[in-house]
From TrEMBL:
Keywords: Membrane, Transmembrane, Transmembrane helix. Coiled coil: none annotated. The keyword Translocase does not apply. The lineage of its organism: Bacteria, Bacillati, Bacillota, Bacilli, Bacillales. This is Transporter. The keyword Transmembrane helix applies. The chain crosses the membrane at residues 6-24, 31-60, 66-84, 105-122, 128-147, 190-209, 244-263, 269-288, 308-326, 413-434, 446-463.
Length: 464
């Protein structure tokens, strides 16, 4: 059934275009999103007080939707701080360094270890957990520091974060914006994440090998800077306690993964299991390490983790608030002011698009890749994936299929560009650990990531 578009639809679409323009210019979009919410609320309520209240209410709505994601990331970071300061992370990683006997083994070894660590700890804490330990071993066997940074970056901030299969922060955002279950987006992302990961890392390794053989490799070391640990503080622990903890912690998380499969836990239930385990580990290690001060230090570690979590998601909340209004949040917050038969602003725009423009899987896939990449230009990776989810829903409504695939494609493109593989200011964690220039790291990543996005987009065309 055709839906007649009204002023709400056109205003929403105008602000989407404006947000994308701001992202291309690398300007902050918070003010634009707030203005968009204000405009939609004023049209819907025809009241100044109602429209002003709509801004705050939409922020509350977005925060409630994102709260589980913010909490799990904050708690994981809190726990990682304890592991770093007690030196347990070094014991956990040390056995793996013996497999690094050649530059190739070091590159792929660092990558795989970083991939697994990032699934459970997220990439930035993962870099801190393993980077300072693995880097010296890799350099000893001939892998350049810049090569180690590429491996950590592409596998952690690229492959692991774009799928985010354990913590599920990224698929939660895109799935909510597209109006899909998280599990559906995660399932659709698997082939895309695999293709993107294999193509990008293989080309990155080959180009490094080629340039070193030709003598054109630039190490990109920062003058006067040596590889450093992400956390200078240390808390002494007996070696025997460190060894036991280094064994038990991975076992606990592996048991969590087993429980997810056995009990069929997905989405919020799976995240809650990981989060609860992390809290218990944090409490136990802090009490053991800090003894009499342990009770107070638990709070200190949690505060540190939540500071990180809200710093990461602070810019996301206004953007998510705007894009949630494109779906179910509109009626809940602003009343039923959409045309009869409407299924939400985004879906209505998708139907209208199908009736006016020839849209197919090819056009949809290219559009989602470009949209995701553009939203990543702010260096967050997360701040714009709600837009990718909304655009995917719009195009899927027009095409009649492929909503989960298009949503996952937009997510993959946004995370790879903005999550920490191309934007220099997002590359700082890996660059700092390895003592290399983030700009040189971004330059080395550019061609592999662009080729990977191209191949992944072509694959998505056949899956839509």
């Amino acid at each position: 059934m055709d839906i007649e578009l009204n002023s709400l639809h056109w205003v929403y679409l105008a602000f989407i275009v404006l947000i994308m323009a701001m992202l291309i210019k690398r300007r902050d979009t918070t003010m634009v999103c707030v203005a968009g919410i204000l405009a939609l609320a004023f049209i819907a309520t025809e009241s100044l007080s109602g429209s002003v209240s709509g801004i705050f209410n939409s922020f509350i709505y977005a925060t409630k939707e994102l709260l589980g994601t913010i909490f799990i990331i904050s708690i994981i970071v809190s726990m990682s701080r304890v592991l770093i300061r007690t030196g347990i992370n070094e014991i956990m990683v040390a056995p793996l360094t013996r497999f690094m006997r050649t530059p190739a083994l070091a590159f792929w070894g660092i990558g795989v270890i970083m991939l697994v660590a990032s699934w459970f700890f997220w990439p930035s804490p993962g870099v801190a957990l393993i980077g300072a330990v693995l880097l010296p071993a890799a350099v000893r066997v001939g892998l350049p520091a810049l090569g180690a940074a590429m491996a950590m970056n592409l596998f952690g901030h690229g492959i692991a974060l774009s799928g985010d299969y354990v913590i599920q922060g990224a698929p939660k955002l895109t799935a909510d914006a597209a109006g899909l279950p998280v599990s559906e987006v995660m399932e659709a992302s698997v082939p895309l994440v695999i293709v993107m990961g294999v193509v990008t890392t293989a080309f990155a390794f080959w180009s490094m090998y080629r340039d070193r053989k030709r003598g054109t490799w630039r190490e990109g070391l920062v003058a006067g800077q040596s590889p450093v640990s992400a956390d200078a503080g240390s808390v002494p622990l007996p070696p025997r306690v460190k060894r036991w903890a280094a064994v038990l912690i991975p076992i606990l998380f592996v048991l969590d993964v087993v429980a997810m499969f056995v009990l069929d836990l997905q989405g919020g239930d799976a995240t809650a299991l990981i989060g609860g385990t992390a809290i218990l580990i944090l409490i136990a290690l802090t009490l053991i390490a800090h003894r009499n001060q342990g009770i107070e230090e638990i709070t200190a570690y949690m505060v540190e983790g939540f500071q990180f979590g809200f710093k990461i998601f602070g810019p996301v909340i206004p953007i998510a608030a705007f894009f949630y209004l494109g779906d179910a949040a509109f009626t809940e917050l602003l009343g039923n002011r959409l045309p009869e038969g409407s299924h939400g602003i985004v879906n209505d725009l998708g139907v209208a698009l199908a009736n006016t423009v020839p849209v197919n899987g090819v056009v949809g896939s290219i559009t989602l890749t470009v949209t995701g990449a553009v939203t990543g230009l702010d260096g967050s990776g997360f701040s714009g994936i709600s837009l990718a989810g909304s655009v995917a829903s719009m195009f899927a409504s027009a095409i009649g299929s492929g909503e989960a695939t298009l949503t996952a494609l937009g997510q993959v493109a946004a995370i790879w560009v903005g999550g920490g593989t191309l934007i220099p200011w997002a590359l700082i964690p890996a660059a700092a650990i390895c003592g290399v220039s983030p700009f040189e790291l971004a330059r080395r990543n550019l061609k592999p990531v662009l080729i990977g996005l191209g191949v992944t987009t072509i694959v998505a065309m056949f899956l839509v």
